[in-house]
Design a protein that fits this description.
2 copies of one chain form a homodimer. Chain A is an alpha/beta fold. Chain A has 3 domains: about 50 residues, lambda repressor-like DNA-binding domains (434 Repressor (Amino-terminal Domain)); about 130 residues, 3-Layer(aba) Sandwich (Rossmann fold), CATH 3.40.50.2300; about 130 residues, 3-Layer(aba) Sandwich (Rossmann fold), CATH 3.40.50.2300. The first copy, chain A, is about 45% helix and about 15% strand. In chain A, helix 6 runs parallel beside helix 7, helix 8 runs parallel beside helix 9 and helix 10 packs across helix 11. Chains A, B: This is LacI family DNA-binding transcriptional regulator.
Chain lengths: ~350, ~350
């Protein structure tokens, strides 16, 4: 690749870059140290000038001097692909803006070595801090160790544990809204499939369902509530039980889209028309909700947005720019598709 | 957390660990330097002894001394979640065995800064080498730069470009087998939805389809072959065109499961019974294939296995243990489910 050469083909310096980009040397330095508060247009101009001149700052030296890795670690346990990819995408978008890299470290929430394993990533200088997703973000032993050692971390969780910043979606409110949607369609017997018992989100969604039913003065029969584990198979098994009840629920609310896909298959096997005979809704709005037959009514979670905010809060902490309690609670959006319709028994 | 203490509560040394684990000091050192050829049982014993004694080797020093990051980078562009999560899982499994970490770096195959961006990860000492997935693994400019600078890398690709090791699935063979399955069921008019034109895999799968049709002496009408892009919408749009042909294809082979889900929805909208009126097959065996209605016949790709092998080859190269041309071609497995059946027009 040919590059524009400085006069005597000598190695370009930071002065050359500053001159070409028409900014101060300090600004060039700030761009290459990934410091915040550099205007995007300025940053672009500096990077373009550096590229033009083939300027290569000594970046290993930068890492040693800053005593920072310029890498953050994402911790999670046994994820749904769509969920964790959305988290990764959001986090990478911010990392890129700040000149950081993302290291992924799935680990077992119940693993005996969890704490040692995580701390050693920081002690080895591999990462500067951690982004924790559920259920790792609710592991009190790990959270205690991170806090004690002053290691920057941000939790994706709605549960208040310790002082670390947390970012989450208001699951209860979203589930309340979905349940109200079913009630507005005339449904009274609404089955509910819970998610994994170790995830706070499952309990919050259940609370939203209960609140909506009570708000409408509707009773909840214990036989309508089934325990699932957030996977397809558990939704399928739960629906097979719910669909043999007499009288049968006229709607089923599954706590995530994977389980709702299982409900759809169980209903198709019994030759039930959806939504004419049974309304079904999921939660999350994964791509799958859109591909289902019929397409699923669900709650669109702003997962990527959660990761964007959590990563920005983390990077500001790592760079010493913020120490306050930052807690964010984001809202979901009800997405109506063809899997829910009027109650077959009328309003 | 309470730990067993050495006699005078002094800090444990490498000698203490060697004594407790009943191995030589050299072996302890090899375990902590993630060198290969330590027996798993020995490794476990050393780690257990280190844990028992709360021994903490100076791992930052280890990284500086070894001039290695003990991190590898995974490069990819715009992935399907299930595919990239399987790659990440396979890669992490081997990384864990070797004491390495995985950094993820999605990047644009057509981005102007791709080469600078990737090389800088190595120049900054953030990673020791790269695992490249499609289509980045077929970017000749990037491959040329990595080779020129002697940066270890392994390609997930079937295309021979340069000398770097490559690992792939035999897509042509798998597509040939799926097409033969449809022909055995009596289908002669078989529609085909291609994947993204920039991915070699799409062309290989098409070649397999052509080979099977020719092998059975069947003609291929140009109108039966539609261009897709590997996403749901492109499969849906292609099927809407294919299903208006007269005579209509009796089977549609979509080049991945996402597009096959789109074919199913287009068929459901036309009230076609599957497989009675139309057989549909996908490719990849993503979880979605199993959740579809009806569940999809597809080809189960050993994606995780590809990542396991590619990562092991990469780590051996980084550790200087191998320099030969390592090329691996893995086989897929035909998975018959309910979306394919006998041709409605008879054999």
């Amino acid at each position: 690749m040919r590059k524009t050469q400085t006069p005597a083909a000598r190695k370009a310096t930071i002065d050359d870059v500053a001159a070409l980009a028409k900014v101060s040397i300090k600004t060039v330095s700030r761009v290459f140290n990934s410091e915040p508060n550099v205007r995007p247009t300025t940053r672009e101009r500096v990077l373009a000038a550096a590229k033009e001149l083939d300027y290569r700052p000594n970046l290993s030296a930068r890492r040693l001097a800053a005593k920072r890795a310029f890498v953050i670690g994402l911790l999670y346990d046994n994820p749904q692909s769509d969920y964790i990819i959305a988290i990764q995408e959001g986090s990478l978008e911010i990392c890129r803006q700040y000149g950081y890299q993302l290291l992924i470290h799935p680990c077992s929430d119940v693993g005996a070595n969890l704490v040692d394993e995580v701390l050693s990533l920081k002690h080895q200088g591999i990462v500067d801090g951690f982004l924790l997703s559920q259920p790792i973000s609710e592991n009190e032993v790990l959270l205690g160790a991170l806090t004690e050692q002053g290691i920057p971390h941000v939790r994706i969780s709605q549960r208040a544990i310790g002082d670390a910043p947390r970012v989450a979606v208001d699951d209860e409110q979203a589930a309340l809204r979905l349940t109200e949607h079913l009630i507005e369609l005339g449904h009274h017997r609404i089955g509910f499939v819970m998610g994994h018992p170790d995830h706070g989100s499952s309990h919050d969604r259940y609370d939203g369902y209960v609140k909506a039913m009570r708000g409408a003065g509707l009773p909840i029969d214990a036989s309508w509530v089934e325990q699932g584990t957030y996977n397809f198979e558990s939704g399928y098994a739960a629906a097979r039980r719910l669909l043999t009840l007499s009288p049968r629920p006229t709607a089923i609310f599954a706590c995530n889209d994977h389980m709702a896909m299982g409900v759809l298959v169980a209903a198709h096997e019994r030759r039930l028309e959806i939504p004419a005979d049974l309304s079904v809704c999921g939660f999350d709005d994964t791509p799958m909700a859109h591909y289902a037959w019929p397409p699923l009514t669900t709650s669109r979670q702003p997962i990527k947005q959660v990761a964007l905010i959590a990563t920005e809060v983390l990077l500001k902490r790592i760079q010493g720019g913020s120490e306050g309690d930052d807690h964010f609670l984001l809202h979901s959006e009800l997405v109506r598709r063809d899997s829910t319709g009027p109650c077959p028994e009328g309003p």
